[in-house]
């Protein structure tokens, strides 16, 4: 059947690559299982189907099933078998973590083919819609009001049900079951339960955030006290307040979605002033062939706290940082740019401009203080720094464009942070695979 396609077709390339991948994590699931009943589809064939489907922007299990009948490439990869969409969805769900883990193996193939040079890596984030509507979310403040209203309505319905029961018992005799709740009350009780669960989750998140903040503040206070003891001088400024996790409460505007509680309301970068239910996807891209060398899917609306974790992932995946690492102003914080994890790279991350940065004449004021921000501004204002940073957009932004516009990933199929993270890794994996294919690197691997 391979002869049905040109030898240099993407489907043949995917088939050859998957034959080289270590799928032991997937095969291990079937070890020791009973062989009785109808034979299942071969795991390697299913992996080929899914990787090819994600490569061509067709991740829907129903569309994949249909393609095994109508699309020659899918028929070749499936060996003219036609797994139904339930089987495809079940396979993906069962092996999602292992499938996402193939990202590293494909990245290693890209390195072996010479597509990763580690000269300049650029980091960026972009919002992708969750498989949930923003209209199915509720703020913490509204939850309290809705909980009180629903409690009152449920009590009224219970009273009415008791009155009707007593009336019918007197008229017809006892014979009704006690669990026959009116549909209206069932709906309200279900809604009330969901609101209480969401409220409790937001409160738990607030306490955990306060616990982490308290640990950071405690460390800073200890460093402050140590410095004062060493110098014999009192440190200027007010010491940071130590939060009490037990007293922590969510902000009234903090929201939780009932369809996918792990997703968050985020500003829509494509439409100013509008918001979407989304996740924030992070990628680090090598400049040589636009290979994605690290990924992360976050629930944070901003990128500030993700510069160091992304740097650590780059080292874990490809062995070291690039000679130059760039990111936009959203990643800047003094703590991050001075972190030891980024000491081995020439870092280019512009500080955000503050309102007082401009003088009355409109000129940008000079930052004379010896701070990380002033040193970074000085570096970026140099000719060499300016020219290097100018390359950032051309390195990383087209990758998001290819994933969103060419391959159609604007809204995830799956739900839950862990599953959506794995799904994003599948898209990153297939992005790299397409680069490997287009650079004619088949013989190199």
What does this structure look like?
The longest helix is centred in the middle third of the chain and has 49 residues, at 183-231. The protein has helices at residues 10-20, 24-30, 43-55, 61-70, 72-77, 85-94, 96-112, 140-172, 183-231, 307-318, 334-337, 372-381, 383-390, 392-406, 417-438, and strands at residues 120-129, 137-139, 255-257, 264-267, 275-286, 291-298, 324-327, 346-348. Strands 1, 4, 5, 6, 7 and 8 form a 6-stranded mixed β-sheet that branches. The chain has 445 residues and is α/β, with parallel strands linked by helices. The chain folds into 3 domains: 2-94, no CATH class; 116-133 and 260-425; 135-257, no CATH class. Residues 359-366 and 441-445 have low confidence and may be disordered.
| Secondary-structure-derived class | alpha/beta
- How many domains is the backbone divided into? 3
Main β-sheet: number of strands, strand sense, barrel status?
A: 6 strands, mixed
Mean pLDDT: 84
Share of β-strand residues: 5-15%
Radius of gyration: 28 Å
Low-confidence stretches: 359-366, 441-445
Q: Which overall shape is indicated by the principal axes computed on the Cα atoms?
A: flat
How many DSSP H or I helices? 15
* Count of individual beta strands: 8
Name the helicity range. Answer: 40-55%
């Amino acid at each position: 059947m391979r002869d049905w396609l040109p030898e240099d077709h993407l489907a043949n390339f995917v088939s050859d690559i998957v034959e080289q991948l270590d799928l032991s994590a997937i095969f291990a699931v079937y070890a020791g299982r009973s062989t009785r009943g109808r034979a299942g589809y071969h795991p390697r064939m299913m992996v080929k189907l899914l990787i090819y489907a994600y490569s061509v922007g067709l991740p829907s299990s129903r569309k994949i099933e249909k393609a095994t009948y109508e699309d020659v490439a899918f028929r070749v990869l499936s060996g003219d078998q036609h797994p139904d969409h339930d089987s495809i969805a079940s396979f993906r769900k069962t092996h999602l973590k292992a499938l996402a883990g193939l990202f590293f193996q494909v990245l290693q193939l890209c390195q072996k083919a010479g597509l990763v040079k580690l000269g300049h890596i650029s980091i960026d984030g972009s919002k992708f819609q969750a498989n949930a509507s923003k209209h199915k979310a509720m703020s913490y403040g509204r939850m309290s009001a809705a909980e009180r209203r629903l409690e009152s309505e449920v009590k009224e319905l219970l009273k009415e049900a008791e009155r009707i029961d007593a009336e019918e018992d007197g008229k017809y005799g006892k014979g009704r079951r006690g669990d026959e709740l009116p549909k209206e009350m069932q709906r309200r009780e279900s809604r009330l339960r969901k609101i209480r669960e969401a409220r409790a989750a937001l409160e738990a998140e607030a306490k955990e955030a306060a616990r982490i903040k308290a640990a950071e503040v405690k460390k800073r206070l200890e460093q402050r006290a140590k410095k004062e003891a060493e110098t014999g001088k009192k440190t200027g400024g007010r010491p940071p307040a130590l939060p009490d996790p037990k007293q922590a409460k969510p902000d009234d505007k903090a929201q939780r979605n009932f369809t996918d509680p792990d997703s968050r309301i985020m500003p829509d970068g494509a439409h100013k002033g509008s918001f979407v239910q989304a996740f924030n996807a992070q990628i680090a891209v090598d400049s040589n062939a636009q290979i994605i060398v690290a990924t992360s899917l976050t629930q944070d609306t901003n990128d500030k706290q993700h510069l160091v974790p992304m740097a650590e992932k780059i080292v874990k995946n490809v062995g070291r940082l690039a000679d130059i690492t760039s990111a936009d102003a959203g990643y800047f914080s003094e703590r991050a740019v001075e972190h030891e994890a980024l000491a081995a790279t020439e870092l280019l991350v512009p500080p955000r401009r503050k309102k007082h940065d401009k003088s009355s004449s409109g000129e940008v004021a000079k930052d004379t203080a010896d701070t990380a921000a002033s040193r970074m501004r000085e570096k970026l204002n140099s000719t060499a720094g300016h020219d290097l940073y100018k390359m950032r957009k051309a390195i990383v932004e087209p990758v998001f464009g290819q994933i969103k516009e060419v391959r159609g990933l604007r809204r995830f199929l799956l739900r839950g942070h862990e599953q959506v993270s794995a799904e994003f890794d599948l898209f990153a994996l297939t992005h790299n695979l397409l680069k490997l294919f287009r650079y004619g690197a088949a013989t190199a691997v």
